[in-house]
UniProtKB/TrEMBL annotation:
<dbReference type="InterPro" id="IPR013103">
    <property type="entry name" value="RVT_2"/>
</dbReference>
<protein>
    <submittedName>
        <fullName>Retrovirus-related Pol polyprotein from transposon TNT 1-94</fullName>
    </submittedName>
</protein>
<dbReference type="GO" id="GO:0071897">
    <property type="term" value="P:DNA biosynthetic process"/>
</dbReference>
<dbReference type="InterPro" id="IPR043502">
    <property type="entry name" value="DNA/RNA_pol_sf"/>
</dbReference>
<feature type="domain" description="Reverse transcriptase Ty1/copia-type">
    <location>
        <begin position="11"/>
        <end position="210"/>
    </location>
</feature>
<dbReference type="Pfam" id="PF07727">
    <property type="entry name" value="RVT_2"/>
</dbReference>
Amino acid sequence: MKEEMDSLEANNTWELVNLPQDRKAIGSRWVYKIKKNADGTVQRFKARLVAKGYSQKVGVDFNETFNPVVRWDTIRTIFSVAAYKKLKLVQFDVKTAFFYGDLQEDIYMHQPQGFEDGTGQVCKLLKSIYGLKQAPRVWNERFKSFAMKCGLKQSNSDPCLFLNDEKSIYLIVYVDDGIISSVDEQAVKQFLEKLKSEFSVVIGVANYFLVSTPVEKGTITTDHSEFLPATVPYREAIGSLMFLAIVSRPDISYAIGVLSQVLDKP
C-alpha cells in the first residue's frame, strides 16, 4: 500500500482541496492481489487503489468512455510478417499505465482508507486512476499522442496499430501492453528509449513455445462408460478454450472441436 501511494504521489495524481458545495466525492477502495511465479510460488504481494467508478455521474464526472482494443487478426498478421521477415519482437509493459492519462473533467474522491490526514479535504484528481470509467480511454489517448510524436502513424484499419512505413516499424498496443518490431533495430531501440523517458516500463523479448499440431495422439480419450456430473462446468470450460484457440492457441483447435461434439452429455 505504501508503494502504491508513493507511486501516486510521485505522479502528482491529485491535490487535496475542499469539496465544492455542488459536488459529491466518489469513493475508493484497496484491491489486493498475490502475484505468483510460473511454478506457483509467491513472487510478490500487490495493493492497488481503485476508484469506485460506479458512483460517477455521466455528464458530471465523465463523458466519453469508449476505448479501442487491438483486433486479434491484427496481432496474428503482425506476427506472421515478423516470422516471414525474421524480425525480433520486443514486448513492453507500461507500469500503472492509467495513472498517465490526463482527465478533462473535475473529479473529486475521498482520501484513501488508511491514509486520511484528518482535515476532511478530498482528492481532486489531476490524473486518471484505475476504476474510473474513462481511465482506459484517456490512457489510450495519451499513448496515441506519444506514438505520433515518435513518428508513427495510426492505422486506418485498426486504431491500436501504429506504423512507420519508411523504417518498417510495426507497433501494436493492447491496453498497457505492447509489441514493436522493425527491420531497423536501431529505430526500435530509439523508440524504446523515448518510451522509458516518458513512462515507467518493463521491456523484454516476446516469448514463444513450440507445440504439436494437431494435438498428439492419445491426449484425448473417449470413455462412454460414464458421464461427468452436472456440477462440472464443462460448457464453460469449452467456451474458454475456444477463446484461446481463436486468439493464441491454434494448436488446440482440433482438440476443442472434438470435445465440443459432446456438449449435451459430456
